[in-house]
Design brief:
single chain, mainly alpha, 3-stranded antiparallel β-sheet, two-stranded antiparallel ribbon
């Protein structure tokens, strides 16, 4: 990087645009130039941010209108149009100062109408920004770096700006950038921040440039090192985001300043109220100041840019009082409530449906009816209030809430006084370290601590009902950032950038209560629980406000069991269905029963027949779903949209293009049903689902036994890798399977989504309770989780009679003629579903290309025998298989690679002879450049390569991963070279030397490698279980090895050399193993005819 990115040498000094023109009396008796934040970017170099800097940036963003929304794309398109119009090309790497000025005039036509002083100030700001990037002093600057720097002025979140800037430096279109471009991106951000702050007044330009360069390079090297990415590889935006969320925010905290709301505006600052902003568009993101209601009890202001007065009225107090009295949360310990929320969270994030489950655990439904005396309408209204509390913490719609902040804020509703709740929240934000043990919070931690309470109080107030989620978050951020800056400036902290709880308490006692008086509201006894002038709270919530942010569809659905009557619309249909029932499954103690009809079995059989899912490996489905997600997930779980899911299906079922329109429409309907069954929104409005839930459910349609699928799904929900599940994880695991069953069975597929989910939760919740009660030990902490072995023991002991529907994970059980699974009641013998594969589904399961030819177009056929010479299996290679391999090796240029060049990275990446899937994928990304591949080709080739890997994966019971030597030998088939050269290379790899010898076991492994490769690329073979085809390959290899060793092995050493093997082949081995001829691709895949 250092060679490619030399340190810049800027020539102009910068000055603050408003330093001379802005009056210093805007905030009385406050120094605008004193640093509020400072970040060390290199040894001896500090980035300092003052109130004056924040005012400057805010006023420019306001005067130009750029801060009113996400305008990054608008800026980029305007610059591209100006470059194009002047014959430089829309993607010109350089932009001159005259063209830069022309682009700004076109982008900001209203600036010319401003007052002269403001017009001059804006002009000076943008000129300073340009010359900060004009490192060579030639009146030109890198276009991409300029655009990246200007994102600071735009509205929008830090994440959206990072994504936009990341894309500017993505030269391949793969959502990934090279190491040098990451350094340039970070350098661009830092350069722009320097231009926006007073840092330039304390250092020479040469020193600043050197510091920026050093920080960008060292940070880039750290990122690649932390993520284990080689210097010549690329970094994806998702990987960058993961690094930042885990540790990066502590190393480059200045990236937070990409969010305009994070700049420290001084208290009392009210913006440009004395200036007519004729050029600026109306700021829809800034709500008007809320009028204080006549019955206002408490109100407090937040600073700009979202100047909102938060008011808590009599009516708000009444609503909150009824909520906590009905639910009795005010009697619960904050730690107890937090434990429930934290236990359900994944990677620090809690999603709405998980939050709802927590509420059902904290506030049992029966309690609300029996003790609270609530009816259905009151319960629904109560759930809306709690939904409003949750959404106050969900910073981006449908992306979950920070569980530590939610639990801290939720303590408002619990027992305890102000001090106890503050100490509890301090411990949560400091990752569980008690404040008595000296837990300290840095500035970011204190922001989160303050923000958690502000967001909860804002949720209580009806005055902020008009705010969008982003506006509410930005408002809370603004108040938290301002207060945190004040705390650090005024407190007597031992350390400059961290604070202990005792130091914070001392600040509050010595005057902080005047600034943050809202902390007093944490003590409910002072205003909610027992106000002397209030009547006892009613049991009905009839007076409570409705949802505050359009949350009508997000409330927790609570209803009685009677709502789940599963009845058809007319008696004739009901009678017909009853006569057609194959199996019945009792779901709940209340009598809810699932009826699986012969038509349902036929429905699933048709899905399997047309899609080919029954030959797919569960892990492969999970991998493809993960590979095709476009969502930026901050919690690390992974989510797919409906569009992502459709792309993944096309990769998993590439042959579907050859089906009739009716068949394609049927599959589209069936898989859409499954997807939307997992969608949390009642109307399918979210259109994203968790990958682990979807993959677990889809395993029902994949190959493998019930036990294999259960173990696969169990592992998906083991978030912390301890091979145990909590009760909520276990319930989610079971619910994922039952959700797919509900989507495939007509009786339940037509239920309203809320009813279907409620019944699933009721059923799986009771089962999870039963499992845990079976293993509960009050004296053991381990009883809070359950292992897979314990789950299996429970199932074998009694679970098979409670959840007999799990037997349907075995696809053979969908044949009603075979009888009912244990614990279910079978109907009369019915026709067998069409589960046999037809030629319409022909082609390779790993095919990436379309084309003619189907499953009947067999080009090669080889009979494999077992150790006793008995024919056991026939490997068939079809025309579609050949086209798939031809497309793979030619489009990726693998056919031009020598075997050693291709296989060496695989061998080097193994550990103790085993290569896991993650390192295999990494090797393939390095060897198979996807720059010139279409999205369809990328998905198709990913399926092919994954299918090859799984063919070599260790057998059940062994360590995970593939034998790297066998995998490397088998994949040598895809490279250049004839049969003899590949056989010789493979021999050297297996023996470890040029003239090496092989014993029986090594020779068997050598031969088996080629067989496994052939089986992996055969669509016909993929219809068999992987364990079976591995056994066939091993049997044939053992039989061939026995014949070679019997006639050609050295009598003393019982070993053979390569010449012995070659002689065997010449003497007649070619008749026994003709499939070795396929090592030469020119004889079949690359043949001209």
């Amino acid at each position: 990087i250092c060679e490619i990115l030399p340190p810049p040498v800027p020539r102009r000094s910068l000055s603050l645009p408003f330093a001379a023109s802005r009056g210093r009396t805007a905030v009385a008796k406050m120094s605008l130039d004193a640093p509020v934040f400072q970040f060390e970017i290199a040894e001896g170099a500090l980035l300092k941010v003052s109130h004056g800097d924040a005012i400057t940036l805010t006023e420019v963003a306001t005067l130009t209108g750029l801060g009113s929304g996400e305008h990054c794309e608008l800026v980029a398109s305007t610059f591209a149009a100006v470059l194009q119009a002047n014959s430089y090309g829309a993607h010109s790497p350089k932009m001159s100062k005259p063209l830069y000025d022309a682009a700004l005039r076109q982008l900001l036509p209203g600036v010319g109408q401003l007052h002269d002083s403001h017009k001059s100030a804006v002009s000076l700001f943008f000129s300073n920004m340009f010359y900060a990037f004009d490192r060579a002093g030639q009146d030109s600057a890198p276009t991409d770096e300029l655009l990246a720097g200007l994102v600071i002025l735009s509205g929008g979140s830090k994440t959206s700006k990072l994504a936009f800037a990341f894309n500017l430096f993505d030269e391949t279109g793969e959502d990934a950038i090279e190491q040098v471009n990451l350094a340039r991106l970070l350098s661009a951000f830092l350069t722009a921040l320097m231009a926006c702050t007073g840092t330039v007044e304390t250092m020479s330009m040469e020193e600043l440039a050197s510091a920026v360069h050093k920080c960008a390079v060292l940070t880039t090297l750290t990122i690649f090192s932390d993520l284990g990415i080689d210097d010549d590889e690329t970094l994806s935006f998702d990987d960058f985001g993961s690094w930042y969320n885990q540790t990066g925010y502590t190393q480059v905290p200045w990236l937070e300043l990409l969010d305009l709301s994070k700049w420290p505006l001084p208290a009392g600052y009210r913006g440009l109220s004395d200036v007519e902003l004729a050029a600026a568009p109306e700021r829809s993101s800034t709500p008007a100041e809320v009028e204080v209601a006549d019955d206002a009890l408490i109100s407090f202001d937040f600073p700009a840019p979202f100047a909102v007065k938060v008011t808590i009225t009599d009516r708000d107090v009444d609503t909150l009082s009824r909520v906590i009295m009905c639910t009795q949360l005010h009697t619960r310990d904050p730690g107890e409530v937090a434990a429930v929320l934290l236990n359900e969270a994944e990677d620090g994030m809690l999603f709405k449906k998980d939050f709802d489950r927590c509420l059902r655990q904290l506030i049992p439904f029966k309690y609300l009816i029996n003790e609270g005396g609530l009816d259905e309408a009151a319960i629904d209204e109560l759930s809306q209030v709690y939904s409003a509390f949750f959404f106050a913490f969900e910073r981006h719609e449908n992306m979950g809430a920070d569980v530590s902040e939610l639990a801290a804020g939720f303590s408002l509703l619990c027992a305890g006084n102000k001090s106890e709740k503050l100490a509890h929240a301090w411990e949560l934000i400091s990752n569980g370290t008690p404040h008595q043990d000296g837990a300290r919070l840095n500035r970011r931690g204190l922001w989160r601590f303050l923000r958690s309470f502000l967001q909860m109080l804002m949720a209580v107030s009806s005055s902020i009902g008009g705010l969008t989620p982003e506006e509410l978050s930005s408002t809370a951020d603004s108040g938290a950032v301002w207060t945190a800056a004040l705390v650090f400036r005024e407190s007597d902290s031992v350390y400059e950038n961290s604070l202990s709880f005792d130091e914070f308490a001392e600040w509050y006692t010595n005057g902080g209560f005047k600034v943050a008086s809202w902390f007093e509201l944490l003590d409910l006894h002072k205003w909610v629980v027992a106000p002397e002038n209030k009547q006892a709270p009613a049991t009905q919530l009839g007076e409570a406000d409705g949802p505050k942010r359009g949350w009508e569809g997000a409330a927790t659905q609570v209803a009685s069991a009677s709502e789940y009557e599963m009845k058809d619309d007319d008696e004739e249909e009901e009678e017909s269905a009853a006569n057609n029932v194959a199996f019945t499954f009792l779901l709940t103690a209340e009598g809810h029963t699932l009826y699986l009809t012969v038509d349902d079995a036929d429905f699933v059989g048709r899905i399997l027949q047309l899609s080919g899912f029954e030959v797919l490996n569960c892990e492969l489905v999970y991998d493809i779903l993960n590979k095709n997600t476009t969502l930026d997930s901050s919690n690390g779980l992974g989510y797919v949209t409906k569009a992502d899911f459709d792309i993944a299906l096309r990769a998993l079922c590439p042959h579907v293009g050859g089906l009739s329109n009716d068949d394609v429409q049927f599959l589209t309907f069936a898989f859409s049903n499954i997807f939307y069954a997992f969608d949390a929104a009642d109307d399918g409005g979210y259109e994203y689902v968790a990958i682990r839930e979807l993959a677990c459910g889809l395993s029902l349609l994949c190959q493998g036994s019930k036990s294999v699928k259960l173990q696969f799904g169990f592992g998906l929900f083991d978030a912390d890798g301890d091979e145990c599940l909590t009760i909520l994880e276990l319930q989610s695991f079971l619910a994922s399977i039952l959700t797919v069953l509900f989507a495939c069975i007509y009786q339940t597929a037509r239920l309203p989504p809320s009813e279907s989910r409620a019944l699933i939760d009721q059923c799986t919740g009771a089962i999870a309770d039963d499992i845990f009660q079976s293993y509960y030990d009050a004296t053991s902490s381990a009883s809070t989780t359950i292992t897979f072995d314990q789950f299996g023991a429970w199932y074998n002991d009694r679970g098979f009679s409670l959840v007999p529907w799990l037997e349907l994970l075995d696809l053979s059980k969908w044949n009603p003629a075979q009888g009912a699974p244990n614990g279910s009641k079978g109907g009369a013998e019915r026709r067998q579903p069409a589960a046999e594969r037809s030629s319409a589904a022909g082609g390779s399961a790993v095919a990436g290309s379309g084309g003619d030819g189907g499953g009947d177009d067999v080009r090669f056929s080889f009979v494999l025998v077992d150790e006793t010479s008995t024919p056991a299996f026939t490997v068939e290679i079809s025309g579609m298989d050949m086209k798939a391999i031809h497309s793979l090796v030619t489009k990726t240029a693998l056919v031009n690679l020598a075997p050693n060049s291709f296989c060496a990275p695989l061998l080097e990446s193994s550990m103790d002879g085993v290569l896991d899937k993650r390192f295999f994928d990494k090797c393939m990304r390095k060897l198979v450049k996807s720059t010139n591949l279409s999205k369809d080709d990328q998905n198709a080739f990913s399926v092919i390569l994954s299918a090859i890997f799984y063919s070599f994966e260790a057998d059940e019971g062994e360590d995970e991963g593939a034998d790297c030597v066998e995998l490397a030998i088998g994949m040598a088939m895809l490279c250049t070279g004839d049969k003899s050269s590949k056989l010789l290379y493979a021999w050297q790899v297996m023996s470890g030397e040029v003239d090496g010898c092989l014993d029986f076991a090594s020779l068997q492994s050598y031969i088996r490698s080629f067989l496994r490769m052939l089986i992996a690329i055969s669509f016909d073979a993929s219809s068999h279980r992987t364990a079976e085809t591995k056994a066939y390959a091993s049997g044939m290899a053992a039989w061939v090895t026995e014949s070679i060793m019997r006639d050609y092995a050295d009598a003393d050493t019982e070993m053979v050399v390569f010449d012995d093997f070659a002689q065997w082949y010449t003497d007649g081995g070619y008749e026994v193993a003709p499939w070795l001829e396929l090592l030469d691709l020119s004889k079949w895949v690359l043949a001209k005819s």
